[in-house]
């Protein structure tokens, strides 16, 4: 699974500047364009979440490699599991090289499988610049939950917290129920991974259907050290080296 960052479909110079592939002559033109300008980094989640951290870190690094030395300003735009931010970039944002965003991992699946009509754009019209990381999505439960294994999840109901339709937390939970025979009850409306984590700690929900292993390592190392999570399944093409005994979704299916 990856976190892809993109810009709206726009002139080639802007994309090349962001990617760092411009010729000297083109670089002069790009530098003239970006000098004194602000680039907005549209962030699909609230402050302090994984996507927010990724976006701010990327902006701090990326601006050093854009001719003209513009500034990158983070703009948090949470809502509907990333659909609000994606719709803004696709339909309303200027297409002049001053907008960047990180698309939620669930968006390609949402569009390809026609899971809803909340996305008003087309991801094929975005300019894709690169990936920030590659890490498996995990289905986890809090250590106190009676659901600790995939067999447990097939035998008894567990409450899964989720954000909105554009999020993996909704989509993967539905996949698990329909393909693996689990009995998850999906509760939507949480506005961020931080809110989901807090709900797990409080015992409001048993688990959440998605969460990157690398994000847990960075944001919740105390959870890992204290064995606060039961990791039930991982979604990816190969197992995380730290989770050799946790089955892959493709194996379970």
Describe this structure in words.
The chain has helices at residues 12-19, 24-34, 50-62, 83-92, 107-112, 150-155, 168-180, 193-202, 213-219, 221-225, 249-252, and strands at 2-7, 38-43, 71-76, 99-103, 127-134, 137-142, 158-161, 184-187, 207-208, 229-235. It has 253 residues and is an alpha/beta fold. Strand 2 (38-43), helix 3 (50-62) and strand 3 (71-76) form a beta-alpha-beta unit. The longest helix has 13 residues, at 50-62.
SSE arrangement:
Blueprint: E1 2-7, H1 12-19, H2 24-34, E2 38-43, H3 50-62, E3 71-76, H4 83-92, E4 99-103, H5 107-112, E5 127-134, E6 137-142, H6 150-155, E7 158-161, H7 168-180, E8 184-187, H8 193-202, E9 207-208, H9 213-219, H10 221-225, E10 229-235, H11 249-252
Parallel strand pairs: 2-3, 2-4, 7-8, 7-9
Antiparallel strand pairs: 1-4, 1-5, 6-9, 6-10
Would you report the number of β strands?
A: 10
The percent range for strand residues is 15-25%
**Helix amount, in percent?**
25-40%
What is the number of helical segments per DSSP (H or I, 4+ residues)?
11
C-alpha termini separation: 18 Å
Using only C-alpha atoms, the radius of gyration works out to: 19 Å
Strand order of the largest sheet: 3-2-4-1-5
Low-confidence stretches: 10-22
Q: Secondary-structure element order, as H and E?
A: EHHEHEHEHEEHEHEHEHHEH
Shape: elongated
> What is the domain tally?
2
Major β-sheet profile: 5 strands, mixed
Which structural class do the helices and strands define?
Answer: alpha/beta
- The overall pLDDT, averaged over residues, is 84
CATH topology of the largest domain: D-Maltodextrin-Binding Protein, domain 2
CATH class of the largest domain: Alpha Beta
